[in-house]
C-alpha cells in the first residue's frame, strides 16, 4: 500500500503506515483484525484480556485458558500475515506476568501495556528483543516509567502511547476529566509528554517516539498529531466496523446506530471509569440494580466479585456474541460519526489519503 506518510520506527521495527490498531477486549481485536491491519501496512494489536472467557471449562482454569488463547491468536496472526503484530496486556490483570511471558515466548513484535504503570514489564521480557510500549495519560507517568526502567533494568521504552480522555474502554483519568469533554486535552498531553521525552532523548542520545491515542477518527486527526510532533497514532474504535473485526453483527450495528447522547461514562467494577454505549445492562446498573456475580475468572486485581454490580468480563463477552441486553459495549467518543462497514484496506486507504492531503496543505 503506497502512502505519503513517514514510517513509525519502534525500536528496530519499521511500521510503514504510522497507525497502530488499538487493542479492544474481550475478543474484539483478535488475529483476524490485527493481521488485516498488519497486512495493509499498519501494526495490528491482539487484546490479551479475557481470551479465556466463554465456556465453563475455561472457568475452571482461566489462567491456562487465557495463556493458550493468546498463544493461538499470535500463531493464527502469523499464518495470516508477515506484518507487524503486537499484544496489549493490562497491568491490572492478575495473570499479567504470565501473559507477558507468553507474548515474549511466542515472539510477538511488541507489547503495549497500560491500565496501571507497567514498572515490571522489562523483567518479564528479559533476554528478548520484543519492543516494549507503555501507555500513559500524564507526563508524570511517562517520567516515572522511564526512570524506573532505566534504573532497574537499564532499558527504555521503545515508544510511548499517550492516551487522552476521548478513548473508549477503561480510562486513566478521573471522572471530572471526562465530563464534559475536554477536546484539546490530548493535544496538551502529547505536547507535555514530548517535553519530558525530548529531555531524555537529548541526554541519552536515543529516539523514543510518541504515539497519540484516544478519539482519533480520521486523516485530519492523524495529520494534526503528526504536526504536533507525534510519530504515529493509535486508532481502535473505527476498526470495529470493518469486515475483518470478528464481533457479532449486532455489535457493529449498535456502533452504526449510536448517537452522541448514547455515549456514557460508566463506573467499571475494576475501579476505573470507562466510555461505553448505553445498553439495558448499563441502564440497570446506573439505576442501582445489581446483577448477581458468580466469578471464576478472577481476571482483574481491583475487582471484588462480592461487591461488583456485575461481571465486566462476562458483560464484554456478551457484547462480542451479540447478547447486547446483557452487555457492556465500549466505544470511543467519536463512535456516532461511523456510518458503514468497510474493509480494513478501505479504511486504511481513506485515513492515509486524507492525512497526506492535509499534511500537503501549506
Secondary structure blueprint with pairings:
Blueprint lengths: L7 E3 L2 E3 L3 E3 L9 H9 L3 E5 L8 H5 L1 H19 L3 E5 L7 H10 L4 E4 L7 H4 L6 E6 L2 H15 L6 E4 L5 E2 L14 H20 L5 E4 L5 H10 L3 E4 L13 H9 L5 E5 L5 E5 L2 H7 L25 H9 L8 E2 L13 H17 L2
Parallel strand pairs: 3-11, 4-5, 5-6, 6-7, 7-8, 8-10, 10-11
Antiparallel strand pairs: 1-2, 9-13, 12-13, 13-14
Describe, in short, the structure shown.
Helix content is 37%, strand content 15%. The protein is of the alpha/beta class. The chain folds into two domains: 8-247 and 339-360, Alpha-Beta Barrel (TIM Barrel); 249-330, no CATH class.
Q: Strand order within the widest sheet? A: 3-11-10-8-7-6-5-4
Any low-confidence stretches, pLDDT <50, length ≥5?
Answer: none
The share of residues in helices is: 25-40%
- Tell me, briefly, the overall form: globular
Overall residue-averaged pLDDT value: 91
